[in-house]
Each structure stands twice: as structure tokens, then as C-alpha cells.
């Protein structure tokens, strides 16, 4: 299996180049463990990128540092050299083309331009918007800086691109809260039947609104007439290797990537259909040890053969995030 | 001053009567003993072992013992108004700190953590009933439980106005409250982060029969897993004393029984805590620049041989094999509680005196979490009361 071979090579590479990684792997996964399957590969918690500078390249080779704002304001730091940065881009193009075709489209971003302008507030949203701009011919922001809908701009954008296939991109909660709900409120409808919408970033912020994917799609169809709506799962720690929802509503692992579900109790591998913690594998992370990461997301996987779309990537069903239960014992009262 | 939260119908803190009682006065003992009875006779209480333990602590016989051991030739009274900052995650300590303040003769304001706990809600309910009885109305009027928003003006004002301040919490909380403005004569008591250890006589363990071993392991469980090994007094380090053969036999037997116990109790850690444990290991290898000898005995029993002292928690222990207790002492420098198995407390205390260890509590295994009027090396009744000297 090529993926396993590539991932073993990456494990060896990072063990050589990244001291913390080597010592951690040496402590948790003792030598002599034979690796016969993906589940045997060493992994690190994705949260490690928030607490440590993990890189396998010399300081002089750092081409870009990607940072994401996380819970509690602690940021993940991802060190990229030119090679890994290129690999990420190539992977993204490959995954995108598989679902939406290989051309570039007029892009309507459901966000404000302030989100990408403010260099000091660099976020996962900024990274995603800029990443997907790869597929744009021209880019327009549908929201004003105060996150209200810029109706005039949308009118103009649609007029200018009438008859063309349009690429709409946004974070799930932004699309819902600041776009669709606002359109409903203003009793405004658009004809974007010619567009496809890609959205990601998770459903957590919509939990209180009890919106699921079906309801989300239904509302979008009713307000902007767009039927071609795709969710994706991905994170800044494995940029490029994203899981895009196929026409049958399933997220598939991209090529050169796979997913393992670990059980909550002893972190051993679960079978298809058993809910557990999501571990993501990807073979393009050369500048930092991010090829095998235990996330704090909950979900289950299914064999690709369960889906009629023909994509051979493992199906991933994301159900939510692990929540931090109250820890027993003495601890700080600050923040209580 | 605005009171953010008060369940007892006493609306404004300024109206709380300031009384200065003699420590362990009859009124106080009668009140606490009535409180104890009410808790123990409440059917719901049985759901909360910590509340029951608290009620046992407040029984008349237990209080009389404390009174007797505290009695000296001096006449003492409380300082006046004492503010207690209860810890966020050991719910019952809110009740204990109240009792320490009350036994010392103070009237008390207890700031509860914002998170609610069912046993604390039940405690408050029972407290209210007892405190509203005519004979105890004085106590009801001079003590109150509050919740404040974090760093609210009200809290700062309150801290600046009290005669005594007791802060339970981690180092961050302690630093925070130390920096606040207080009355020049305010008596301050802080309980910052501490770590603790267990010392085991391997030979003693090897000599135990199955029942004896089960008992030891059960006590160990109560000191550690009961609170996810996350209390200051839960052992983080384990010193195995003896020769190599005995130590390896003792460990094997001990952890074998512990595995069975964890499985029988269906012990389960929060998955996020399990991930924290991996991150903790990463911190350790980061500061030691090397891999660490880590034995993953079971899902939630990790034994680590290293000198690095990040917090052991969630079932990760630092293990030391030593030939005598004296060799373990250098590892006890900053420890709070030393629990032991196969030794006597007195014997260990004699060995510790004259060393640079900071251990201020030596208890048999199974008692690490017991809280008392002497804590962190301080007699709370002594510190929270003052002497009126007469010639």
C-alpha cells in the first residue's frame, strides 16, 4: 500500500529532523512495534501545534508560518517550506477539480474583505478564503465589514457574471448566520441556480440553531436557488488534504490521505460505523510532523464502497467535537 | 455593595452582622452538629460521598476532638469578617472552608465557583433550613454564600473590606488575590498548587495476602483515581523502597490488582483528559531533550521513570526505585502530602526533620484527600482567630 509506505517514510523523516517528535514517538510508541497497517503508525495530538513549535526544516527554509486562532485564543503554528506549500496547493487543486472540474470561476466569498485584510487577525477563515481563491477568476466579498449583506455588490456581481458558473465559498456558520438568515429577514431572493457552494469550518457555532445539513441545503435552495452545495472537512494542520462532500452527501478522504477512528476508551482502532475520535493521515506534510494527527473531533467512517459516487476515498462522518468535561481535583478558581 | 447571588433572603452583604465568637463555642458546635444531622438524615445526601464525609466531620464528637486538640491557655476570638474563595473543582471544599472559618469564630462570606454542583446545591438547601431555625438565626445572619462575576467591582470592594481572606486555588488565583488591595490588618491565607507523593515498602507489599493487597489498592484508588489524580494531595510520585527483586514483585502484584479494580469500577477518564496526558508527555520530552522511559501498564496507568516534574495527572505517575526512604527524600522537596504504605507516620516524620523537604502532611495510604483544620502546614483555627492576651 503506497500510502502506508509514504507515511512510514514521513515518520522516519520527521524522527530525524524534529527532536520533540523523535523523543515523543520514542516514548509513546516504543521501538520494535511492527507497522503492518495505518493504525500502527505513530500519531500526535493535533493540539500539539498549539503548544510547541514543531518543524522539520531549518529556520532559513521556513517559507511561511500558518497560524490559526483556536479555542481560548491559542494559535496553531504550522511551518511550511516551499516544497510543502506547493504540495498543499497541488493537493487542493486535485481534490477541488475532482468535484468541481479544473477551471477557474467568478468567486463570491460569503465574508467581509476585512477578514482577509487584517494581517493581525489571521485565522483559519483567512487561510481558507485565500486558499480557495486559487479557483477564482475574480473575487468579490458579499458582506460588508460589519458582516451585513452588501446587496448592491451582489446585484452587480450577478449582473456581470450572468450565464457563468459561479463559485460561492464561505464558512458554514457565516453562510448561515450572516447570509442566508439575513436574506430571509430582508425577504430577498437571488437566482444563483448556476452556482456551486463550498462551505466548511464546522457546525459547532450552529449547534444552538439546530441546523443540520439537509435543512441548510434546503434553505439555501429556497433563498438563492443553488442546488449544488458541498460541505468540506479540513483543518489548517493538514491544509490541502480536505474531505469534500460528494453528490451523495458523503465526505471522502482525498487521495494520499485516509482516516482512522479511535475509540474513546483506549484509543485503539474502531471498525467502520463505530463512533470515536477522528485521526487524519496525509502524505504531503514534509516540513512539519503533521502527517498523522489525532483530532478532537468525533465521528465514524464507512467503506468507500458504501457510496455510489465512485470516489474510492474512505467516507468520513463528522458528528461534533469532544467537549472538555469538568476536571475533578484542585484547580484554579480564576475564570470560574 | 451589590450581592450577586444569595439564596438565603439576606439581600445585602453590608447587613451581615459581624460577630466575633470564641473558636468552637457552644453555639457553633451546636449549629454544626445540627447541620451534620440534617445532612445525614437527608435521603439525597447519600448520592454524594463527599457531602457525607463532610457531615461526619461536623459531628459533635469530631468537633469536640478538634476543640480539645486546639485548646490552649489563651482566650481567642475570630478576626471578624472572613472572605473565602472556594476552589472551582473540589466542590465540597466550599463547605469545609466555611466550617474552618466558623469554627475559628468568624462570620463568613464564601464565594462559590460559578459552576454549580448538585452536592453544593443540596448543602446550601440544608444549610438554609438549619440556619433559619430560631436558635441559629444569629449564625444565619452572619454568614453568607455568594457568587460574583469574575473580578467584579463588588468582589474587589469585598476583598478590600474583610478582616481575613482565605484563597483556595492554583498559583494563578493566588497571585491574583495577593495583588488585590486589602485592609492593612487583613489576615491572608493562601493555598496554591502543591504536589504529593506516596512511599511504599516493597517488602511489606510482597507479604500481603490477596485481601490485604486489594485493600491497599482500593485505598490508592481513593487517593488518586477518585479525583482523576488531580488534587494537590493525590500522589504524583511513587517511591518504591526495597531491593530490586521485592520492588519488581511488589509492582507487578500492585498494578495487577489496580488494573482489576479500575476495570471493576468501570473507571473512565474524559477523552480530552487522555489527550492531555499525551501533551503532558510531550512537555516532558521537550524539557528533557530525550525520550523517557514510560511504561503504559494499562489504558489509565502510566508509569514514568524520570526526574521531570510536570504535573502527573490522569493516571500518569513518576516512579522511583530506592533502597531506603532516605534516598527518596531528595525527590520530596516541594511536596505537600506524603502518603505511605508499610511505614509509620512517626517514623517517616523523624527521617524528614532536618532535611530540606517541605512535606507538611504525612498520612497512611487512603487518607491523602482527607481535609482537616491543619492544612499546608498551617493550623487554620489558629490563623483565623486572634489571641486576647491579659496580664
Question: Describe it for me?
Answer:
The complex is a heterodimer of chains A (336) and B (391). Chain A is an alpha/beta fold and 336 residues long. Chain A contains nine helices and 14 strands. In chain A, the strands form two sheets. In chain A, strands 1, 4, 5, 6, 7, 8, 9, 10, 11, 12, 13 and 14 form a twelve-stranded mixed β-sheet that branches. Chain A has a two-stranded antiparallel ribbon with strand order 2-3. In chain A, helix 8 links the parallel strand 6 (166-171) and strand 7. In chain A, helix 1 packs across helix 2 (19-28) and helix 8 (172-185) packs across helix 9 (213-224). Residues 331-336 of chain A have low confidence and may be disordered. Residues 1-14 of chain B have low confidence and may be disordered. Chain B contains 15 helices and 16 strands. In chain B, the strands form four sheets. In chain B, strands 9-10-11-8-7-12-13 form a seven-stranded mixed β-sheet, sandwiched between helices. Chain B has two domains: 13-193 and 376-388, Aldehyde Dehydrogenase, Chain A, domain 1, CATH 3.40.605.10; 195-364, Aldehyde Dehydrogenase, Chain A, domain 2. The two termini of chain B are 41 Å apart. Classes of the chains: A alpha/beta (336), B alpha/beta (391). The A-B interface holds A 19-20, 22-24, 26-28, 44-45, 47-48, 51-52, 264-267, 277, 294, 296, 322-336 and B 85-90, 113-115, 150, 167-173, 176, 193, 226-232, 234, 268, 270-275, 278-279, 281-286, 288-294, 299, 313.
